Model the fold of this input.
Amino acid sequence: MEEEEIKYFVRVRNTDLDGTKAVHIALTGIPGIGLHTSGIISRMAGVDRRAILGRLDDESVERIRDVVENYSDSVPVWMLNRQKDVYTGEATQLLGADLRMAFDDDVNRMRKIRCYRGIRHETGQKVRGQRTKSTGRTGKTVGVSKKKK
Done:
């Protein structure tokens, strides 16, 4: 019985995915794809989500690539990670470097218009309303110091 060859790296959307992992786990290696989205992609491609990615035939991998490229066209708007772009108004699924660039652009826009969130980003403080009395401290001073006599 000859052992099946396994591809240790599978290239999808300019990202090397781990071929030793299951399809739905390996797809989460692409920035912008989480577990939920990877399960949907494997279902749309007609691939078993628990199959090892490196053992799939080339046709199945190509179907996965096609589904990843055309994901935003085939799912409802509420399943996308960028439901309304600020400049174009379009709904898209951002993946890879596009996701990082869009995030940086959003933060820079908030800094530029001097909104509350932008100022918090600038100063390195917590942005989403967390408490800051006892957590999120940086620098030397941590805790309560006693008064000197």
